[in-house]
Write a structure and sequence with these properties.
The structure is a single chain. The protein has 344 residues and is an alpha/beta fold. The protein contains 14 helices and ten strands. The chain has helices at 6-15, 28-41, 51-57, 59-72, 88-96, 118-133, 159-163, 169-179, 208-217, 233-241, 254-262, 272-288, 295-317, 331-339, and strands spanning 20-24, 45-49, 78-85, 101-104, 138-143, 148-150, 153-157, 183-186, 222-225, 265-270. The strands form two sheets. The protein has an eight-stranded parallel β-barrel with strand order 1-2-3-4-5-8-9-10, surrounded by ten helices. Strands 6-7 form a two-stranded antiparallel sheet. Bound molecules: glyceraldehyde-3-phosphate (G3H), 1,3-dihydroxyacetonephosphate and zinc ion (ZN). Zinc ion is lined by residues 84, 192, 226-227, 269. Residues 24, 83-84, 192-193, 226-229, 269-272 line the site of 1,3-dihydroxyacetonephosphate (13P).
């Protein structure tokens, strides 16, 4: 089936009370790992590419790899999403490249670093919604800022500073009404990358109550959790066992994500866990077989390690078993649905 607009997947997830992992990709092996996991668990999937990923992979390679995935797995509904679009131009170029969903992250200015004003955020997000919906493409917006910094994207806020930039539930209502976004990413104390929390997070640093409050005010809005890798100790241990130097750190526990799913979270962004899994697998090969120089001999275990993480998350978030239950919708059909005010 053709790539589907992300909105179709989020709506099904909301109707059936589950969440969808959105996995970041930069190369063929990561796309393969996700689709292998999706086939095994019969899961619909969201595959996402950051600006950095598009630059690294090149849009043409990425587009063709995604079309190959759709051709090879005709029973799996796949949405292709631009992660952290920094400007309407980035989002429009993604749409031209065949992405079926875009994130306009107007919580930061176009530099991807400095926190933006509410008015700026509404303005750029509204622009993207108008243009994207005219093509049936889904839009995710973000209100509030995450902590940390990842590959040039992020305000670099420390834990304490990030607490001042949590999503304001009252403003969230206004933001969704003014922009018409399909999904809203919320800031609840998470950050991108491996170093999120210095101990298993409690409610003062991972503020799940913000999600509950927003969901009460916006019961029909699909919520998105960024920075939601769980950073399992087993994956850190493998890296360190084979010469890595990862420090002690904690991610977002899967049970907290499951709590979020009960309160309107439909998309959960996971990148770091897959990076850790692949790195550990590659280090193991290099340590155990230092004479090995065929890339397939380390990329295959890396892909397998990522596949396992994807399977675990797909099962934990409840998307497993849902692929065949979704009626595929095309972007063209979504245009008509949007013109009816969202009515199917
Ligand atoms: O936004 C965070 C994702 O992990 C993507 O990271 O910008 O290094 O590709 P990246
Ligand atoms: P992690 O770094 O926790 O995997 O978050 C990824 C993310 O939010 C991508 O947008
Ligand atoms: Zn993110």
């Amino acid at each position: 089936m053709p790539l589907v607009p992300m909105r179709a997947l989020l709506d099904h997830a909301a109707e059936n009370n589950y969440g969808l992992a959105a996995f970041n990709v930069n190369d063929m092996e990561q796309i393969q790992a996700i689709l292998m996991a999706a086939e095994e668990t019969e899961s619909p999937v969201i595959v996402q590419a950051s600006r950095g990923a598009r630059e690294y992979t090149n849009d043409a390679y990425l587009r063709h790899l995604m079309l190959a995935a759709a051709e090879l797995y005709p029973k799996i509904p796949i949405a292709m999403h631009q992660d952290h679009g920094n400007s309407p131009e980035t989002c429009m170029s993604a749409i031209e490249q065949g992405f079926t969903s875009v994130m306009m992250d107007g919580s930061l200015n176009a530099d991807g670093k400095t926190p933006a004003t509410f008015d700026y955020n509404v303005d750029v997000t509204r622009k993207v919604v108008n243009a994207a919906h005219a093509k049936g493409v889904t839009v995710e917006g973000e209100l509030g800022c995450l902590g940390g910094i990842e590959d040039g994207h992020g305000a670099g806020l420390t834990g304490a500073e990030a607490m001042k930039h949590l999503t304001n539930p009252v403003q969230a209502e206004e933001f969704v009404a003014k922009t018409g976004v399909d999904a809203l990413a919320v800031a609840i104390g998470t950050s991108h990358g491996a170093y999120k929390f210095t101990k298993k997070p409690t409610g003062d640093v991972l503020v799940m109550s913000v999600i509950e409050e927003i969901h009460k005010r916006l019961p029909n809005c699909h919520l998105v959790m960024h920075g939601s890798s769980s950073v399992p100790k087993e994956l850190l241990d493998i890296i360190n066992k084979y010469g890595g130097q990862m420090k002690e750190t904690y991610g977002v526990p899967v049970e907290e994500i499951q709590r979020g799913i009960k309160h309107g979270v439909r998309k959960i962004n996971v990148d770091t866990d897959n990076r850790l899994a692949m790195t550990g697998a590659i280090r193991k090969v290099f340590a155990e077989k230092p004479g090995e120089f065929d890339p397939r001999k380390y990329l295959d275990p890396a892909r397998e390690a990522m596949r396992k993480v994807c399977v675990d998350r797909m099962v934990a978030f409840g998307q497993a078993g849902q692929a065949g239950k979704i009626k595929p919708v095309t972007c063209k059909e979504m245009v008509a649905i949007y013109s009816r005010g969202g009515k199917k």
